[in-house]
Amino acid sequence: MRSILFVCTANICRSPTAEGVLRKLLAAKGAQGFELASAGTHAARDGMPPFPMAVTAARRRGYDLTRIVSQPLVPDHFDRFDLILAMDRGHQRHMLAIAPTRARGRIEMFLEYSEAFHGEEVGDPYGGNERDYEAALDRIEDGCRGLVKVLVR
C-alpha cells in the first residue's frame, strides 16, 4: 500500500486535515514513497483551500494544510489509489455505489485504523466551533497514528 486517498464531503475540513496529519507523521518516521491526497464526494468547493478553521486547528498542532487544494472524487481515483478512506459511513456508501467492482475492496472507513475511536466516524466540523474542529482533529490524529503502524514497519 503506497497510495492513500482520504475522502470527505467537500474536501475542505476532514480529508485535507487527514492528508496533512499523515504526511507529517510519515515524514517524522522517515517514510518515503507514499502518495497522499484527499478529495470530496461533492465538487462544490473544487480548487479552494481548506476551511480556515481547519487550517487554524491543524496549525496549532503543527500541521500544514496550506498546500492542499480541494478536488472532487473522480473515477480515476478508484484505480490510482491503493487505499481509499472514508471519513463517515455516508461517504463510504457513496463511494461503494459508484466505484468499479475491482476497486471496492480498497474503500474502507478511516477510523478502522484508530485505537481510541475504532469503528466510529469523523464528524463534520463545518459550521461548528473551534471545539468541533479540535474533536475532529483528535480522531484524525488517532486514525493516522494507527495507519502509520500499518504502513511503516
From TrEMBL:
GO molecular function, one term: protein tyrosine phosphatase activity
Enzyme class: hydrolase
Domain Phosphotyrosine protein phosphatase I: 2-150
UniProtKB keywords: Hydrolase, Protein phosphatase
Record InterPro entries: LMW_PTPase, Ptyr_pPase, Ptyr_pPase_sf, Tyr_phospatase_low_mol_wt
E.C. numbers: 3.1.3.48
Record-annotated active site: C8, R14, D124
CDD domains registered for this protein in UniProt: LMWPTP
Family statement drawn from the similarity comment of this UniProt entry: Belongs to the low molecular weight phosphotyrosine protein phosphatase family.
PANTHER family: LOW MOLECULAR WEIGHT PHOSPHOTYROSINE PROTEIN PHOSPHATASE (PTHR11717:SF7), LOW MOLECULAR WEIGHT PROTEIN TYROSINE PHOSPHATASE (PTHR11717)
Name under which the protein is recorded: protein-tyrosine-phosphatase
Species assigned in the record: Usitatibacter palustris
